[in-house]
Amino acid sequence: MGSTVVICHYHEVALKQKNREIFEKKLRTNIAFMLSDIVKQNMVMRGYGRLKIVLPFSYEDSEKVEVVKSRLRDVFGLTNFGIGVATSLDLEKICEASLKVLRNKEFKTFSVKTKRQNKKFPLNSIQVNHEVGAFILEKFKNEGHEVKVDLKNPEVTVHIEIVDKEAYVYADRFKGPGGLPVGSSGKVVALLSAGFDSPIASYMMMKRGARVIFVHYHSYPYTSYDSIEQVKQIVKILSKYQFYSRLYIVPIAEAQRIIVLNAPVGLRTILYRRLMVKIAEVIAEKEKAEALVTGESLGQVASQTLRNIRVINQIASLPILRPLIGVDKEEIIQKAREIGTYEISSQPYDDCCSFLTGRHPETWANFEEIFEVEKKFTWNELVEMSLAKAEVENIYADFLDKNIVEKIED
């Protein structure tokens, strides 16, 4: 019997036509990152319309197979993947492999589905289905087990893929997250808080292929240090989707004090947001990022009305992407539960945007009033003051040895 393999399929990547090879290569690199402690990089191989991973252990090693399965479910770009065995282009061997992938499974109905990319194989897909199905029925009958073929709603399906030099056989097929491979769409800088929204916005940008650089603003010592530790935990969770992350931790308390001395209470939150955009753009230039990302959702809080969003946008030279702009809060919270940030975001923390802002922030800011206030200070000075004390931390997914990053990317 051949090696244990994972056969990975993708959909959106396959639609990239002339750029398809670039996306496939990025997906292969990302899988190599995800399984870097399990398989060697050269064991992740490209094939037409699929990727093949050769695993260094037996198909029956369920514990290790489970680890591979859980990791690949987090690789953006994968539509689905099957874990099974590779075998030679011989019908008898294919039949034996089909029987092997069904062992230790409880079922009464099954089907066989064959894809024959290699048209030189003597049997067509329907004939392979028939021959393999008959073989399975006979073997199980001889062993005293009654199973039936059910083509409409089988309890288990044997998938067979016949390619140029071998065949892949698997009965375990799992759904991937879809989207595009992280890094295939460039870089963005996300303004990250410890709340529910911005982690989900960052996750959604990763799913669209963007590598996310994080920037977190805090008002310590005027607010607690809690948000910083919570954000580090959130970035740790999000890093499993892009393998490693860079986090900028930027103190803005001194800049906020200058704003407070010069601005009416109602405008302070908007001015803080404009400051954050200016700082994020400097970081974006350094990181060669193409856009900023926020977790804003239309009308959710005072700074997220249409007018205030427009006022905040006005100071930016880069696009500000808002993946959650039309998403309901309950949807955001549900996604936070799914990806594992919910418990952290549920904990109380001090939001730097609420620093000395009062109870009634402006919901429909006036451009002229904003510009008049901003004449009293210089944005460049506030930005430089904040970035001078910024900290930068690289955070890696638990399974990734940071020493292997450069080796795989090269």
UniProtKB/TrEMBL annotation:
<comment type="similarity">
    <text>Belongs to the ThiI family.</text>
</comment>
<dbReference type="Pfam" id="PF02926">
    <property type="entry name" value="THUMP"/>
</dbReference>
<dbReference type="GO" id="GO:0009228">
    <property type="term" value="P:thiamine biosynthetic process"/>
</dbReference>
<feature type="domain" description="THUMP">
    <location>
        <begin position="66"/>
        <end position="173"/>
    </location>
</feature>
<feature type="binding site">
    <location>
        <position position="304"/>
    </location>
    <ligand>
        <name>ATP</name>
    </ligand>
</feature>
<keyword id="KW-0694">RNA-binding</keyword>
<dbReference type="InterPro" id="IPR054173">
    <property type="entry name" value="ThiI_fer"/>
</dbReference>
<feature type="binding site">
    <location>
        <begin position="191"/>
        <end position="192"/>
    </location>
    <ligand>
        <name>ATP</name>
    </ligand>
</feature>
<protein>
    <recommendedName>
        <fullName>Probable tRNA sulfurtransferase</fullName>
        <ecNumber>2.8.1.4</ecNumber>
    </recommendedName>
</protein>
<keyword id="KW-0963">Cytoplasm</keyword>
<dbReference type="InterPro" id="IPR049962">
    <property type="entry name" value="THUMP_ThiI"/>
</dbReference>
<comment type="pathway">
    <text>Cofactor biosynthesis; thiamine diphosphate biosynthesis.</text>
</comment>
<dbReference type="GO" id="GO:0005829">
    <property type="term" value="C:cytosol"/>
</dbReference>
<feature type="binding site">
    <location>
        <begin position="216"/>
        <end position="217"/>
    </location>
    <ligand>
        <name>ATP</name>
    </ligand>
</feature>
<feature type="binding site">
    <location>
        <position position="273"/>
    </location>
    <ligand>
        <name>ATP</name>
    </ligand>
</feature>
<dbReference type="InterPro" id="IPR050102">
    <property type="entry name" value="tRNA_sulfurtransferase_ThiI"/>
</dbReference>
<comment type="function">
    <text>Catalyzes the ATP-dependent transfer of a sulfur to tRNA to produce 4-thiouridine in position 8 of tRNAs, which functions as a near-UV photosensor. Also catalyzes the transfer of sulfur to the sulfur carrier protein ThiS, forming ThiS-thiocarboxylate. This is a step in the synthesis of thiazole, in the thiamine biosynthesis pathway. The sulfur is donated as persulfide by IscS.</text>
</comment>
<dbReference type="Pfam" id="PF22025">
    <property type="entry name" value="ThiI_fer"/>
</dbReference>
<feature type="binding site">
    <location>
        <position position="295"/>
    </location>
    <ligand>
        <name>ATP</name>
    </ligand>
</feature>
<dbReference type="InterPro" id="IPR049961">
    <property type="entry name" value="ThiI_N"/>
</dbReference>
<dbReference type="GO" id="GO:0005524">
    <property type="term" value="F:ATP binding"/>
</dbReference>
<keyword id="KW-0820">tRNA-binding</keyword>
<dbReference type="GO" id="GO:0009229">
    <property type="term" value="P:thiamine diphosphate biosynthetic process"/>
</dbReference>
<dbReference type="GO" id="GO:0004810">
    <property type="term" value="F:CCA tRNA nucleotidyltransferase activity"/>
</dbReference>
<keyword id="KW-0808">Transferase</keyword>
<dbReference type="InterPro" id="IPR014729">
    <property type="entry name" value="Rossmann-like_a/b/a_fold"/>
</dbReference>
<keyword id="KW-0067">ATP-binding</keyword>
<keyword id="KW-0547">Nucleotide-binding</keyword>
<dbReference type="Pfam" id="PF02568">
    <property type="entry name" value="ThiI"/>
</dbReference>
<dbReference type="InterPro" id="IPR004114">
    <property type="entry name" value="THUMP_dom"/>
</dbReference>
<dbReference type="InterPro" id="IPR020536">
    <property type="entry name" value="ThiI_AANH"/>
</dbReference>
<keyword id="KW-0784">Thiamine biosynthesis</keyword>
<dbReference type="GO" id="GO:0002937">
    <property type="term" value="P:tRNA 4-thiouridine biosynthesis"/>
</dbReference>
<dbReference type="InterPro" id="IPR003720">
    <property type="entry name" value="tRNA_STrfase"/>
</dbReference>
<dbReference type="GO" id="GO:0052837">
    <property type="term" value="P:thiazole biosynthetic process"/>
</dbReference>
<dbReference type="GO" id="GO:0140741">
    <property type="term" value="F:tRNA-uracil-4 sulfurtransferase activity"/>
</dbReference>
<dbReference type="GO" id="GO:0000049">
    <property type="term" value="F:tRNA binding"/>
</dbReference>
